[in-house]
Amino acid sequence: MADHQRFVIVSCPRTGSTYLVDYLAAVDGVRCLSEVFNERMVLLRHHRPVDPRLEDMSFRNADPLGFLERVEREVGDCGWFGFKLFPNHNLPLLQRLCADRRWRKIFLWRDNLVEQYLSFLLAASHFGRKEWGRVPDESKFRAWTGELIADIHTIESNYQAIEKALTQADPGDVFALEYEELGDVAVMRRLLRFLGLPEAAIDAAMARAAAEPGLAFAPGPNSAQRVQNYDEIRAILERSRYKRWIRP
């Protein structure tokens, strides 16, 4: 297997993780794939597999580590190899990689759980859960509120699973950043240094990100502008410990 620095983006849906995958994949020498262990399909995003077994979920699920090694081998020579992993994809694998010093961990989270959850509902409404790209800024929807609090609790529990797994990691192997920091040039520069890229490659990556619109982080409108029944959601959250995240 090629000798390269391995990294894994540990996160949850609607945190900007796809943007981060694309950002890192655009850096020279870096190969960053998507949700290799997605529960519905193998999502490689930045690699078209040659070996048909790399699209076989049963083969993947039977031996996750062996499958991951096979993906690494096929990706070929590169200085940095990574992918993103959510707790619901494969929690035992996430725990194992967090404890493995050969893997650097990028922990990406979104502080505003309400915005994260409503972004998830918006994407599900727009894409029908078949894909999870950026939703057009003009899209609006009516949110179902029946499980609002319970679903936010689920997001919290997923973050807790990540944080518990990261307690097994060496502190020097973890880089944590929040959704809003994806647009901070200084933070992104520190991230590339954390991965071990040389300064010349970092400067080139910064210049490319500034020049290419698709690599510039641009959060969409907030949920108050997208959700047609936002007043109903606000009324529910006013009676909860999440009220600090709702916008008038």
Note the beta-strand portion. 5-15%
User: What is the CATH class name?
Assistant: Alpha Beta
On the 0-100 scale, what is the average pLDDT?
93
Please tell me what the overall shape is: globular
Largest sheet, spatial ordering of strands: 2-3-1-4-5
| Pattern of helices and strands | EHEHHEHEHHEHHHH
Largest sheet composition? 5 strands, parallel
Q: How many structural domains does the protein architecture include?
A: 1
Helix content: 40-55%
CATH homologous superfamily designation: P-loop containing nucleotide triphosphate hydrolases
CATH architectural designation: 3-Layer(aba) Sandwich
Poorly predicted runs: none
What quaternary form is this?
A: single chain
Integer-rounded radius of gyration: 18 Å
Total number of strands: 5
Write a structural description.
This protein is α/β, with parallel strands linked by helices and 248 residues long. It has a single domain (5-112, 153-218), classed as P-loop containing nucleotide triphosphate hydrolases (Rossmann fold), CATH 3.40.50.300. Helix content is 43%, strand content 11%. The chain is built from ten helices and five strands, in the order βαβααβαβααβαααα. It has helices spanning 17-25, 57-62, 64-75, 91-99, 113-127, 148-166, 185-195, 199-211, 223-226, 230-237, and strands at residues 5-10, 30-32, 80-85, 103-109, 174-178. It has a five-stranded parallel beta sheet with strand order 2-3-1-4-5, with helices on both faces. Helix 4 (91-99) packs parallel to helix 6 and helix 7 (185-195) packs antiparallel against helix 8 (199-211). The longest helix has 19 residues, at 148-166. The protein starts with a strand and ends in an 11-residue tail after the last helix. The mean pLDDT is 93.
